[in-house]
């Protein structure tokens, strides 16, 4: 019976701190409305709720059978079960006040509350995250974490078709914008009625804290700008990252680079990633130390790591950020043809930095990963091997991609039937199609 399921969900909400006694009747009535039920009698036998995904699954079966949920594709169900959870999720003012109250006790208490809350609302779908594969492997650089993300659901072809028909909307402008809080969503934008964000200040500027619904690592949070403005790695970012770890010393914070290929997936909205996890790189030691002239108070050195990483340690946020900016400026302009590093080609820049900040005891620590997004053009020489791939690559050169300022990959190869196929490799192995 749907009323029993409603009762079960309300009890779930109470047990998990989403609603209190005062909200009980109100939440029940909101759910009755959603399921188009006018009568209600409380079943006293329901006392222990099941896992939320099980309650929601049963509710959706009812909704589909009774024409309340029109379709039962993954996207349709994700939209509908989020709407259900919205009925028992407290408003932003309540969540923000609770977070602030706990932050006054300790930053960790505040994030513990908010992380538990984000799972209780099913914004973080624990049942899906459980599908991810994770393990640790020993390497010469120390134990390295390997994760395979399996929690993003496959798209149903019917959903793809629906998303294609949907009118393009600029609201919310992207998946990170603050306007997602409480948004109903549609076939090409996830529902967020159960989503709440926490306002924070970074170096005096307005940002918001939220968790990633996909939790790539423990307490994977996202810190995003109040405004929908593009990502840019600069002096101000170093200050903001350091300011974040000062305020949340149990979390690290980093930024994806601001160039394609070596950057993140959402370059259009200024944001950082943080969380309560010590990555393998953070455990790696200095390989050698050096002094940066003008920044003698900062401990600097190269990290023993398979990427080029410079680590800074110090006490003063200002000095640390200036030292990092000095490295960024130097690296952006750096060209070394012998090492195949070009700061730019045809006026398109290739060098940038992935910064990661954390507290190391009472010291501020900043890792700067030097990135270059140049791609190479592989020219196949020789005939195809039996599996249809070119037998060998004997020459390489760079070129600029006209669209993105990066270099694509292309190849001309002779297929088994003697046809000449172009750009075959680029489509298979790289995110961009060749423009040749
Ligand atoms: Zn945005």
Question: Can you tell me about this structure?
Answer:
This protein has helices at 2-15, 24-34, 52-65, 74-86, 92-105, 107-120, 126-129, 157-165, 235-247, 280-283, 317-332, 424-429, and strands spanning 133-139, 142-148, 198-202, 205-211, 221-225, 252-254, 271-275, 286-290, 299-303, 309-314, 344-345, 348-349, 351-360, 363-372, 376-380, 393-398, 412-414, 420-422. The protein is elongated and about 75 Å long. It is α+β, with helices and mostly antiparallel strands. Helix 5 (92-105) runs antiparallel to helix 6 (107-120). The chain starts with a helix and ends in a 7-residue tail after the last helix. The structure holds zinc ion (ZN).
Provide a compact summary of the structure.
With about 425 residues, the protein is an alpha+beta fold.
Features of the shown structure:
436 residues; alpha+beta; two-stranded antiparallel sheet; 30% helix; disordered C terminus
Please work out how many helical segments DSSP would assign: 12
- The percent of residues in helical segments reads 25-40%
What's the count of strands? Answer: 18
Q: Kindly report how far apart the N and C termini lie.
A: 61 Å
> Largest beta sheet: what is the strand line-up?
3-4-5-7-6-13-14-10-9-8
Using the CA coordinates, give the radius of gyration: 26 Å
Shape: elongated
Strand content: 15-25%
Helix and strand pattern: HHHHHHHEEHEEEHEEHEEEHEEEEEEEEH
Poorly predicted tracts of residues: 384-391, 393-397, 399-436
Quote the average pLDDT.
87
- Based on secondary structure, the structural category is alpha+beta
Bound molecules: zinc ion
User: How would you sum up the major sheet?
Assistant: 10 strands, antiparallel
């Amino acid at each position: 019976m749907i009323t029993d399921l409603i009762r079960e969900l309300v009890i779930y909400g109470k047990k998990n701190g989403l609603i209190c006694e005062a909200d009980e009747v109100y939440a029940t009535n909101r759910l009755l409305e959603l399921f188009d039920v006018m009568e209600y009698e409380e079943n006293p036998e329901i006392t222990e709720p099941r896992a939320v995904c099980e309650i929601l699954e049963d509710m959706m079966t009812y909704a589909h059978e009774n024409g309340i949920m029109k379709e039962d594709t993954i996207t349709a169900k994700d939209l509908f079960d989020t709407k259900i959870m919205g009925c028992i999720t407290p408003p932003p003012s309540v969540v923000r006040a609770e977070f602030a109250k706990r932050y006054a006790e300790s930053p960790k208490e505040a994030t513990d509350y908010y992380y538990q809350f984000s799972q209780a609302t099913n914004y973080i779908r624990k049942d899906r995250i459980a599908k991810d594969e994770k393990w640790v492997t020993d390497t010469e650089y120390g134990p390295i974490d390997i994760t395979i993300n399996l929690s993003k659901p496959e798209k149903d072809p019917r959903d793809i078709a629906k998303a294609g028909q949907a009118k393009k909307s600029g609201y919310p402008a992207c998946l990170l914008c603050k306007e997602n809080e409480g948004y109903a969503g549609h076939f090409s934008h996830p529902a967020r009625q159960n989503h709440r964000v926490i306002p924070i200040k970074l170096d005096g500027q307005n940002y918001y804290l939220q968790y990633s619904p996909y939790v790539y690592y423990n307490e994977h949070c996202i810190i995003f700008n109040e405004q929908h403005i593009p990502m840019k790695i600069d002096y101000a970012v170093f200050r903001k990252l350091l300011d974040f770890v000062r305020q949340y010393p149990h979390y690290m914070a980093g930024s994806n680079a601001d160039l394609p290929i070596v950057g993140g997936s959402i370059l259009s909205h200024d944001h950082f990633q943080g969380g309560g996890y010590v990555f393998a790189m953070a455990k790696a030691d200095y390989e050698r130390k050096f002094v940066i002239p003008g920044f003698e108070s900062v401990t600097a050195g190269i990290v023993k790591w398979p990427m080029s990483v410079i680590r800074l340690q110090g006490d003063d946020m200002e000095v640390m950020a200036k030292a990092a900016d000095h490295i960024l400026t130097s690296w952006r302009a750096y060209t070394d043809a012998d090492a195949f590093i070009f700061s730019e080609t045809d006026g398109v820049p290739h060098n940038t930095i992935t910064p990661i900040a954390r507290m190391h005891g009472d010291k501020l620590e900043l890792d700067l990963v030097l990135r270059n997004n140049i791609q190479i053009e592989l020219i196949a020489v020789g005939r195809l091997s039996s599996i249809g791939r070119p037998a060998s690559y004997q020459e390489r050169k760079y070129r600029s991609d006209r669209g993105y300022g990066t270099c694509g990959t292309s190849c001309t190869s002779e297929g088994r039937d003697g046809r000449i196929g172009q750009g075959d490799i680029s489509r298979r192995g790289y995110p961009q199609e060749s423009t040749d």
